[in-house]
Design a protein that fits this description.
Layout: E1 3-10, H1 16-29, E2 35-42, E3 48-50, E4 74-76, E5 88-94, E6 97-104, E7 106-109, H2 120-127, H3 137-144, H4 146-155, E8 163-167, H5 168-185, E9 190-194, E10 204-206, H6 212-220, E11 225-230, E12 234-242, E13 251-252, E14 256-260, H7 269-273, E15 279-282, H8 289-305, E16 311-319, E17 324-330, H9 340-347, H10 352-365
Length: about 375
């Protein structure tokens, strides 16, 4: 019997377009002889609609990302929890009538950022006992909030860069005091970033304290909670992780490295997705075997400490003094055929289509409910 997958993408975050591009990559590679695919797009205002499953509809065109328009029929989730082993009955509203859409086995959420990668969609699916790919509510929320991630990792003895977390109300009340605290506790340069946004959206590198106010406003435009983080002089290295069978250690890849040219201050949103500046991806990273193994060990430990499921990409800094510090943990990393996560697994012998299959099959066999 064919398995039916609901691909969920778009969403309300600033990474809406990249989520759509990720969906295009998956739609073009998924094994259609094994899986029937229902494409469900979420508009920028949160409406769930049935959309085209043609990969060409979800590709970059002239450097512009696609968008879920909302013109399709609205998708309805089941009115109550599905029973164990039962398929999920999705329906649509078409011309003021509710009609069946598909009987779905598993949901693959390809959402990046808030309102999707942060436990909100995972919570909606959990309420209805719908199987889905990726981490659960707690782990998704924890990893979406960079300050919370740092606190959890630090408590487990996994080093991260020093940072100060600030909310918008506190900044409005005592901006001068906050600036003094940051200047006293963190060495320049500082990276000012939204606490709960991905893909370097709203991130600014600050080399002079006079630049801080503008950087803070840029970050607050994305999130009312931000981090001011001490810059790390070193190399940016990324490791992909997959959940293993029960009782076994998570599987990790040989890490890869992002190397940027002198025309970039850092690896920002435009350089990640739209060709800005000079960026070189090296897989594997040109580091000693001992350092590569240490990074893999840290990535696996982080996966376990944060109670992740399915997949993750753990980004670290290898500092000039040899220290390894976790930068971010992504529970739904970029997943186009050219993104670091699938490229790292391809280097390990697991090609793109097979990677999708493995994640779907993991989700199908995972226990429903509390775990």
């Amino acid at each position: 019997m064919t398995t039916t997958i609901a691909l969920l993408f778009g969403g309300r975050s600033g990474e809406h377009g990249i989520s759509c591009v990720t969906a295009g990559g998956i739609l073009g590679a998924i094994d259609r002889s094994r899986y029937d695919v229902i494409a469900v797009g979420i508009t920028r205002d949160g409406r769930w609609v049935h959309v085209s499953d043609d990969p060409e509809a979800w590709t970059l065109v002239d450097g512009k990302a696609p968008e879920v328009s909302g013109t399709g029929p609205e998708v309805l989730l089941p009115p109550s929890a599905v029973g164990p082993g039962e398929k999920v009955a999705l329906r649509v509203i078409r011309e003021d009538r509710v009609e069946p859409l598909a009987e779905v086995d598993v949901v693959l959420p390809l959402l990046h950022g808030p309102y999707g990668e942060d436990g909100t969609v995972q919570g909606a699916l959990e309420l209805l006992d719908i199987p889905y790919v990726g981490s659960g509510v707690l782990a998704s929320a924890l990893c979406m909030d960079k300050g919370a991630t740092k606190a959890a990792l630090t408590r487990a003895g996994i080093p991260t860069a020093r940072a100060v977390t600030i909310d918008e109300d506190r900044w409005a009340r005592e901006a001068h005091h906050v600036t003094e605290t940051v200047a006293r506790t963190l060495e320049l340069p500082w990276f000012v970033k939204p606490a709960r946004a991905g893909s370097s959206l709203g991130v600014t590198k600050v080399s002079d304290p006079a630049q801080l106010e503008h950087a803070v406003k840029t970050a607050f435009a994305e999130d009312p909670r931000i981090l001011i983080e001490e810059g790390v002089s070193g190399r940016e290295v990324e490791c992909a992780v997959l959940q293993a069978a029960a009782g076994e250690e998570p599987r990790t890849t040989i890490p890869g490295e992002v190397r940027i040219g002198e025309d970039l201050d850092f690896y920002d949103y435009e350089s990640k997705y739209f060709g800005k500046g000079t960026v070189e991806i090296q897989v594997p990273a040109q580091l000693s075997d001992a350092v590569l193994e240490e990074i893999r060990d840290i990535a696996a430990r982080a996966f376990q400490v944060l109670r992740l499921e399915g997949l993750a990409r753990v980004d670290v800094f290898v500092a000039a003094d040899g220290a390894i510090l976790v930068n971010e943990v992504n529970t739904m990393p970029g997943f186009t055929p050219y993104s670091m996560f699938p490229v790292l697994w391809e280097n390990m012998g697991l090609e793109y289509s097979g990677l999708i299959t493995e994640l779907v099959e993991q989700a199908r066999t995972r226990r429903i409910g509390l775990r």
